From TrEMBL:
Cellular-component GO terms for this entry: plasma membrane
Family: Belongs to the binding-protein-dependent transport system permease family. FecCD subfamily.
Keyword Transcription regulation among UniProt keywords: no
Membrane topology: Multi-pass membrane protein
Compartments, record wording: Cell membrane
Entry's transmembrane regions: 23-43, 64-85, 113-136, 143-166, 178-199
Gene Ontology molecular function terms on file: transmembrane transporter activity
Protein name per UniProt: Probable siderophore transport system permease protein yfhA
Record key words, sorted: Cell membrane, Membrane, Transmembrane, Transmembrane helix, Transport
GO BP field: siderophore-iron import into cell
Gene3D superfamilies xrefs: ABC transporter involved in vitamin B12 uptake, BtuC
Lipid metabolism as UniProt keyword: no
UniProt main location, coarse: membrane
Amino acid sequence: MGVAVALLVVVLARDLSRPRFILIGIGVAWALSAAMGLFVTTADIRDVQTAMTWLAGSLHAATWPLLAVAVVWALPAVLILYLTARAADVALMGNQVASGLGVRLSRLTLLRFFAPVLLTAASVSCVGSLGFVGLMAPHMARFLLRGGQVALLTGSALVGALLVLLTDTIGRLAFAPLQIPAGIIISLIGCPFFILLLWRRRDAL
């Protein structure tokens, strides 16, 4: 489903230029949000409770069989990201330099666009939406580590996993016996982080 939505966004945007791509993505997100709202208002109450827990982002429903399926989908994406890491480092030098060194930028862009989509789809299928993890983990990894894309990918994965485990533990213990979904805790942490990030980069916006 995630890959299909990503393909729809690319087709509608016709290219990967940032402003057009973002606007089309926002429009598709609104349409999917409306579809989810329709489901919530018409579904059985038990299905609604399950959907709301999933939307909040929670490890409660994660099972080993579900994790195995997610790993099968995630492994190709991880391989793509690591195999294209060196080319991505070269691409940071600029399009002309990268093209001169033999990097096929159009193929690299598509591969490194759809690989994160696969990873996100695999993760969301297990634990629901934990959006701020994808925002916070790379910046924290970049702050802690030095190196190219391989170091950043590895660091982001480790930091992201630690964030999820930490917020899930806080949600389970801080308000026991009431259990707060990890997605709510990570959002409470992520919102100030996002505002701070925007403030620090205000001159570049």
